[in-house]
Write a structure and sequence with these properties.
This protein folds into two domains: about 130 residues, ATPase, nucleotide binding domain (Nucleotidyltransferase, domain 5); about 170 residues, ATPase, nucleotide binding domain (Nucleotidyltransferase, domain 5), CATH 3.30.420.40. By secondary structure, it is of the alpha/beta class. The strands form three sheets. The chain has a five-stranded mixed β-sheet, sandwiched between helices. Strands 10-9-8-11-12 form a five-stranded mixed β-sheet, with helices on both faces. Strands 5-6 form a two-stranded antiparallel ribbon. Helix content is about 40%, strand content about 20%. It starts with 6 loop residues before the first strand and ends in a 5-residue tail after the last helix. Bound molecules: zinc ion. Zinc ion binds next to loops.
């Protein structure tokens, strides 16, 4: 098949702040990309029209290049039903309750639409084209506002009996611990997400502990994990302790994953993974320190490679997956 007639997918990643999309081949090669602000506060219909516009724009580009669009793969955050084609209650898209997104998009564009959780699609993207290349079994943790998860076993996404597998952020690491957004207490996410890391640092500073981060707070600048890592590297003890704790909690998460699934590789993705070695190294060291010999070979820990593109690339690739 010549390149000019190769089938492509339109991959879409629907986030609370941005809609990212691209034309993706079945090998994960990105032909072109496009993105828009989500404008989520303007309501469901407004966002749906923006998504439809993006699909039509990319479809026109594909047609102009003489390529045939196989289908549109869509990734959304939070609760959804793949089998019903419904978005049920995504945390970052206000008002999106029980939206039949597959029906709406297929009626408006004429394309076949596939729907999945954004963390699943991002894991598929990294598995095929990024930090997951070369293995068959992979778990990916997406570290950001929350902690998302995606699991690939024997080369296929594992979704579970009711499509809710991989919610590693809501595994409990501390009985009776901090309250999580999901309603449980002591979730990994309530300790080791970017939000939780910033909250732990802010609580200690507000209680009067010394830190170079205090200046930042007093200036009204936002406290972020990026800043915590920077201040830790510059020698601030509080920032070092908070970051070290985050990495230790993540190591506990990885040890738990490993005892259950024995993956070849765990990929750390999401905004916090921009810390690179400053994240990977302490997590690996804490796994070595805290993990049992029963683990056997510890999992290989890698930082994701595709950044924010993993979602739409994986959404595109999902179109070519066997059902
Ligand atoms: Zn939770």
């Amino acid at each position: 098949m010549s390149d000019q007639t190769q089938k492509v997918a339109i991959g879409l990643d629907i986030g609370g702040t941005a809609l990212k999309a691209g034309l993706v081949t079945s090998d994960g090669v990105v032909i072109t990309t496009s993105s828009l602000e989500t404008q989520a506060t303007a309501g469901v219909e407004h966002v749906l029209q923006r998504i439809i516009g993006l699909i039509q724009e990319l479809a026109a580009q594909a047609q102009g290049d003489g390529r045939s669009v196989e289908a549109v793969g869509v990734g959304v955050p939070g609760t959804l039903s793949r089998s019903c084609g419904m978005v049920i209650a995504p945390p970052n898209l206000p008002g999106w309750r029980n939206v039949p997104i597959v029906k709406r998009l297929s009626e408006a564009t004429g394309f076949r639409i596939t729907l999945d959780n954004d963390a699943n699609n991002a894991a598929l993207g990294e598995f095929r084209c990024g930090a997951g290349r070369g293995v068959k079994n992979l778990v990916m943790l997406t570290l950001g506002t929350g902690i998302g998860g995606g699991m690939i076993f024997n080369g296929r996404l594992w979704r579970g009996a009711y499509e809710n597998a991989g919610e590693i952020g809501h595994t409990i690491i501390y009985v009776g611990g901090r309250t999580c957004g999901c309603g449980q207490q002591g979730c990994l996410e309530a300790y080791a997400s970017a939000t939780a890391t910033v909250a732990r640092a802010a609580e200690r500073i507000e209680s009067g502990e010394a830190s170079t981060l205090r200046e930042l707070l007093e200036r009204g600048d936002a406290l972020t994990t990026k800043r915590i890592v920077e201040h830790a590297a510059a020698g601030d003890i509080l920032a070092q302790e908070v970051w070290e704790e985050t990495c230790r909690y993540l190591a506990v998460g990885c040890i738990n994953i490993q005892h259950i699934v024995n993956a070849e590789r765990i990929v750390l993705a999401g905004g916090m993974s921009a810390a690179g070695e400053a994240l990977r190294r302490p997590v690996v060291e804490a796994i070595e320190r805290l993990g049992s010999r029963m683990l056997g070979d510890p999992p290989e820990i890698r930082i994701a490679e595709l950044g924010n593109d993993a979602g739409f690339i994986g959404s595109g690739l999902s179109v070519f997956e066997p059902v």
